[in-house]
Amino acid sequence: MADVPERPGTVGVLVRYFAAARAAAGTSEELLAVAAPADLAAVLAAAVDRHGAGLARVLERCSFLLDEVAVHGRDTAVPDGAAVDVLPPFAGG
């Protein structure tokens, strides 16, 4: 996988897609450059810009991990070098 070119004012984020998100994105993972300061909403917007409306529809139902910790709001800050996991909805509780 190619590295994201370093650009001033951006953060690099590894996004890993699972299940339907992987199918909609057409890849299991990618590196995205997002304008700093970044939050989860900006990372997801960059992914949708790259992959389109099909991914946007899937993301509405997904949950997310930031560096393996559950995210409870799309306004959560995403630091440079972070990993975001896009998870399918889970049944049960």
From TrEMBL:
Name recorded for this polypeptide: Molybdopterin synthase sulfur carrier subunit
Return the Gene3D superfamilies for the record: 3.10.20.30
Organism in which the protein naturally occurs:
Nakamurella endophytica
Q: Which Pfam families match?
A: ThiS
